[in-house]
């Protein structure tokens, strides 16, 4: 957690001391809602009704409160009282902690697929989904069609940053996740370190094009619905549309982020963004009449959910009532610091930290056996804590040239750096057929964009050899 707070002072300035031109008028001595502001908001309401934003034919007290409450969450400006629920496009199926994140008992032959980091590249994401056999290749990104049946798909985090189509990627994934749920399958999204960074108000890895996508898709709509852009001032010019979307208690916290996971057990495999240590899981376990109860993964997911759905910074300041530039900066810095301070360890950390979203103990160097001499001992202990018959850990985070396995096939590294913002690698997908082989062993394969199914044994790395 301290890594996030430290970066507020050690990296480039987080907040500009120059207020956005449209928001820089003095607030000193001004009544919270002057007559001309009320008139402008009333006109905005009339326009919104004419355009069909609100479902009622008159200005209700709820609508007035929605526009005029300076402390209210911004979420209603995109969801409630509108004919079009804009946030519904990002809604994931409800994730039941302890059930959907811990599925050790699967039917024989159950198909599981997984792919790694997307980083805002919608073209790479589509390629992953088609290669995985879960997106109808004849369907469009805007109107995707799930064709995976009962397949369970796990995306191991880092949809955000480094690309220009982050929201488009989340819309595509959320739409397919809802369709998969209806078909009896599942598409589970995990947190990556870049989701954690964005939730803490740290956007140093965001592309200018990605920030523009948030402005077009989120910010402009709030400006229009709210009848003002002064809600932006509380974020001190630090990407208000992005920050408002991903902060705890923010626009996407309940319907999307609250249904994402830190880790999950599916069959004999535990999935996570960066890696798991036994210490991440063992405090959640207990002994009950001689039988070990595995609860570590569920505990991590519950901690993440409780944190992300709560607005730790307190009330909003949607009217932008500040007397000085220093007040603006101080309020925004406090907003970021309180999010970092309250962030659970399973999402916190920083470069080099042994966190489920940051560690590289099992994945570095790329395409070779890990350099950590204790890596095999660590992962074996972690798998023993993950579940009774968990045999492998699947992770992203560290780009590889190809999907590969190390540490006697206990560590599967599936981030292939497919985003053009990373290294433009060729998408590949991991496939596991539960108990599909002889003696009920799992069949593990790698699916390529060319339609090949590569036996997992061909992707094993040994000693210090590097796979190219």
Please tell me about this protein's structure.
With 468 residues, this protein is α/β, with parallel strands linked by helices. It contains twelve helices and 14 strands. The chain has helices at residues 2-10, 35-50, 61-68, 122-131, 166-183, 193-199, 208-226, 240-246, 278-281, 296-308, 325-342, 375-386, and strands at residues 102-103, 111-115, 152-155, 186-189, 263-266, 269-272, 286-288, 291-293, 392-395, 404-406, 411-413, 428-433, 443-448, 453-455. The chain has a six-stranded mixed sheet. A hairpin with a 4-residue loop joins strand 10 and strand 11 (411-413). It is globular. The two termini are 36 Å apart. The model is unreliable at 1-60 (pLDDT under 50).
Q: State which percent range the strand residues make up.
A: 5-15%
DSSP E strands, number: 14
- What would you call the structural class? alpha/beta
What is the helix fraction of residues, given as a range?
A: 25-40%
Low-confidence stretches: 1-60
For the termini, the CA-CA separation is 36 Å
* Overall geometric form: globular
Helical region count?
12
Order of helices and strands: HHHEEHEHEHHHEEHEEHHHEEEEEE
Sheet of most strands: 6 strands, mixed
The averaged pLDDT comes out at 85
The strand line-up of the biggest sheet is: 1-5-6-9-11-10
């Amino acid at each position: 957690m301290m890594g996030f707070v430290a970066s507020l002072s050690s990296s480039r300035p987080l907040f500009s001391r120059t207020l956005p031109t449209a928001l820089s008028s003095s607030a000193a001595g001004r009544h919270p809602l002057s007559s001309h502001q009320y008139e402008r908001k009333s006109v905005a309401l009339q326009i919104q009704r004419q355009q069909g934003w609100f479902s009622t034919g008159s200005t209700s007290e709820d609508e007035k409160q929605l526009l005029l409450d300076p402390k209210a969450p911004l979420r209603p400006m995109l969801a409630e009282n509108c004919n079009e629920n804009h946030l519904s496009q990002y809604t994931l199926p409800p994730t039941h902690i302890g059930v959907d994140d811990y599925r050790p008992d699967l039917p024989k032959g159950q198909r599981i697929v997984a792919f790694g980091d997307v980083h805002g590249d919608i073209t790479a994401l589509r390629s992953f989904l088609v290669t995985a056999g879960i997106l109808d290749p004849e369907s469009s990104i805007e109107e995707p069609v799930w064709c995976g049946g009962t397949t369970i798909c796990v995306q191991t985090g880092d949809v955000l940053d480094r690309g220009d189509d982050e929201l488009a990627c989340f819309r595509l994934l959320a739409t397919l996740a809802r369709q998969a749920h209806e078909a009896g399958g599942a598409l589970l999204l995990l947190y990556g370190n870049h989701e954690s960074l964005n939730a803490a108000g740290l956007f140093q890895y965001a592309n200018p094009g990605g920030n523009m996508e948030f402005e077009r898709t989120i910010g402009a709509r709030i400006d229009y619905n709210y009848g003002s852009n002064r809600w932006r001032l509380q974020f001190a010019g630090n990407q208000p549309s992005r920050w408002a979307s991903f902060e705890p208690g923010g626009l996407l916290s309940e319907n999307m982020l609250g249904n994402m996971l830190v880790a999950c057990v599916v069959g004999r495999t535990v999935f996570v963004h960066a890696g798991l240590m036994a210490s991440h899981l063992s405090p959640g376990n207990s002994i009950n009449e001689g039988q070990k109860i595995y609860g570590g993964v569920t505990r991590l997911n519950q901690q993440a959910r409780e944190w992300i759905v709560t607005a730790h910074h307190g009330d909003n300041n949607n009217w932008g009532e500040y007397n000085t530039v220093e007040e603006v900066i101080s309020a925004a810095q406090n907003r970021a610091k309180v999010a970092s301070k309250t962030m659970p360890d399973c999402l916190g950390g920083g470069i080099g930290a042994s966190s489920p979203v940051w560690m590289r103990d099992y994945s570095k160097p790329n395409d070779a056996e890990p350099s950590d001499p204790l890596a095999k001992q660590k992962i074996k202990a972690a798998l023993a804590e993950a579940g009774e018959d968990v045999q492998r850990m699947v992770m992203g985070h560290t780009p590889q040239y190809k999907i590969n396995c190390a540490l006697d096939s206990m560590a599967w590294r599936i981030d292939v750096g497919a985003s053009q913002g990373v290294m433009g690698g060729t998408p590949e997908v991991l496939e596991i057929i539960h108990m599909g082989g002889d003696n009920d062993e799992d069949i593990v394969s790698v699916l390529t964009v060319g339609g090949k199914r590569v036996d997992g044994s061909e992707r094993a790395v040994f000693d210090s050899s590097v796979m190219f």
